[in-house]
Amino acid sequence: MQNNKIMRFNFSERKVAMKTVKPARKTENIIYAIRNIVTYAKGLEKEGLNVTYLNIGDPNVYDFDTPDHMKQAVNEAMKAGQNGYASSYGTDAARAAIAEDQHKKGTGRKNVKPEDVIVSSGASEGIEIALTALLNPEDNILLPLPGYPLYSAVIAKIGAQAKGYTLDHTNNWQPDLADIERLIDENTKAIVVINPNNPTGVFYDKETLKGIVELAKQHDLLIFSDEIYDKMIIDDVQMTYFTDLTDEVPIISFNGLSKSYIAPGWRMGWMVFHNMEEQTEYIGAIRRIAEARLCSPSPLQNAIPAALLGNQDHIPEALAKLRSRRDITFERMNAIDRVTCVKPQAAFYAMPTVEGIEDDEKFVKDILKATGVLFVYGSGFGLPKNLGAFRIVFLPDDDTLMSAYDRFEKFLKTY
Ligand code: PLP
User: Fold this and answer.
1) Which end of the chain is more exposed for a tag (fewer CB within 10 A), N or C?
2) Domains in the chain, please, with CATH?
3) 255 alpha carbon to ligand 1 midpoint, in Å?
């Protein structure tokens, strides 16, 4: 009773307004359009709009599920008492499985050892650790434009500099080598290459990759190779890895269980060091950050050997679904007046462009309000607003996509 009185007294007697807490200035540039646009859609949903979400790359929201043998492996680990902290670099079994999986990715990876692997909480954490360990405020790194927003968010957080190199929509969204060369200066330390690519869904020609390797060699750049979609190639084409092209340029590759193993909520990812025998100082810095954050979730790491060394049948099954959904997306988009769409060959993204659009964010919001279909605007991936680009996630089933594209087509006729 007495306590209640005191508390009431304290609150009602306060006369001075509480000082507002100011966030760090660095956070002003942390923008994640893929999720931000959802807040807008949820608002409209509350007012009664029926929303078809074609915005986020989470296969589990649609008709894809984590393979049972992976779920079992996690259950078994928990039951067997693997619930304490793991090694900061990952469990021995997970690292050995990742190394073995790397051996299947071309001769350039035959010598990957478990010690070259660090397990992280999603590829996202690995990317953040590797960037944090590398960049001082005066350093810059080359990021693709359009790009996956995590990279620019982390760079903003670290307080280093990002320079966007063009992925050319008039050339199958391939990286523009001349633009990359033009951007490199004495403070450039690395280049990020996402291949197969989010948000465009394409993968890169061998010649383009060779060009990037040459520039990296000439300018002593490290390559960050984001390969999270490398097992999600829809067409029957061979992926070229940087390690097929060079044993001289230091490379860190990133991958994980979120996409091809359909377990994004488990937050299991990893980084692998290639051609980095001499980079002991940098690897040491990465290890120190990994140690300071203790470890990535321990029982979930048991899913890594189950995933990488176990039954892979779910992958061709998923790709068959994606092939049909990609074909629908590609054909329907290009059949619409003013819309051009490069054919996605991997992952589950397409990035069409529409002529005559001045502000892509307004455009995407107008589509949403009129049709209930939610895309992500291209400027959320760093593109100019007037390119009229937007990203489609084609994970939903054929009928859902057909209906969404019908509504979009009708909308665009009068927009
Ligand atoms: N890199 C790319 C290109 C992605 O598209 C994503 C997720 O969408 C990630 C990294 C993050 O993956 P994870 O879930 O393993 O953190």
Assistant:
1) N
2) 25-64+314-413 (3.90.1150.10), 68-309 (3.40.640.10)
3) 8
